[in-house]
Known about the structure:
This protein has 504 residues and is mostly helical. It contains 22 helices and four strands. It has one domain. The chain has helices at 2-18, 20-36, 46-61, 66-84, 93-104, 122-128, 166-177, 182-207, 212-219, 222-228, 234-251, 259-273, 296-322, 325-328, 336-345, 347-359, 361-365, 380-396, 405-430, 447-454, 459-464, 477-503; strands at residues 118-120, 148-150, 371-372, 377-378. The protein is globular. The model has no long low-confidence stretch (mean pLDDT 87).
Amino acid sequence: MTNLFLKNGSDFFHNIWKKKFYILLIWFLIFGTYFYYDGPFNNAPIRTFLIIGGIFTLLSLVNMKLYNKIFSVILFTGLIFCVYTPNMDTPDENFHYSRALYISDGHLYLPSSVEEMKVSSDISEVEEEFKKPLLQTDLEEKQLSDKQVVYSNLGNTNGYSFVSYLPQTMGILISRLLHLSVFGSIFLGRFLNLLVFALLVRFAIKKAGDKQLIFSLLAIIPINIYIAASFNQDAFANGLIFLVIGLFLSYFEKDKVSYRDIITYSLLCILIAFSKLPYVLLICLLVFLPKEKLNKEKYLLIGGSILTVALASVIWLKVTSAVNATIAHPNPAINPVNKIIFTLNHFSDFMRMMIKEVVNFIPFKLQSSFTFGWLTYDAKAFMWFYLVFISIALFVLPNGKPIKPFAKFGIVLVSMGIIFGMLMTAYLMWGEVSDISIKGIQGRYFSGVFVLLGCITDFSRRLFWNQNRPEPIEYDKNKVEFTYTYIASLFILISIITTISQYY
């Protein structure tokens, strides 16, 4: 027993020495980033830096399967965000918190009038300390209340199903059961939302087969973890989207796609329709699976599944547009029907605007993936380094077996449909009738599209493989995975320090 202990201890310290430069870079980056943002070092929470440095050091030392490594990265780095992201400081977090409060009282669907939109008065306590560092609030001293208050901003969540809020709601219910404080409910709600996202991503990566590494790098964009460590329903939605994409990729490695596979995939797409509607188009990917994996009966099932998912989407769209339409959009100048008519009469202006949106996507929209708070502070300077990193990964990393051209065409087509759906949703729902522009679109909305398109790249094969060689040059898989996940985690570290420098 003693010999085993000594051996494990020796291996641990040997691993530290082996990775000493990686560890030193972590600590250098912590303090370097803090100084970059002009952080007042004399007032800095030293304990915080020690905790953050310790977590990232541990993550760099632990060896495990890639999907478990990514799960650990999401969970532990997200845990830091859970604590150090100020109170309700992610986009619309107070709205999402109020919806979780509403569901925790047994209400699955929104009422038809403002007067009925009653939630726990905890929302009032929370908004009194809006955007204040969570650890500096008095919320730890505030007990959860049974008193109800009218909260009209609840109507802003009418586009989302209660399913997307179950993790956050469970956090609130556990807090009530244990008689925790308002602070406790916020922390548990954030943490369980994060945990569900981490689990869904883990399963997605595990299913992704030989696309695991590039899938992982694109899934852990810092903004995804930042949002997951909040009450935002996008955590559940993104997790579902990644899982569906992972399932789709897994079908390419099967000899036959089963009826169960198609039904499971379709049910998940219905859930996506209830949480992030444009991504419901992922159901159409089944059509582009290699024909040798399907038969006539399965094609009929796919057709029926697409119709079923489409019907569910239309019903949900009708429900969400009818319920609280005037509450969610009190501005009478916002009218989607009238805007469609206006757009058709000014179609050339509309097309000019759409072309500009596409051209300006990377320099203007994509940088919002490194914008935090209520789009109030950012790490945009580092975003360009991140783009270089991802570009290198896409061009250099072996990306498994190439996907057949017909399937690639389908993936690109569906991706373009999702992008168009996102843009048109923002255009019709958030802008006045005569306003030919798109407002409110953020780069994080397209994270699922990034993963989907990233997994069909085969630049490395075209650039570096001998065309007469069926397999790539041998490489150290573990070393490659460690190097790329390590670099990806450094960008998460930068994002964390950006938040701390902003508020602490």
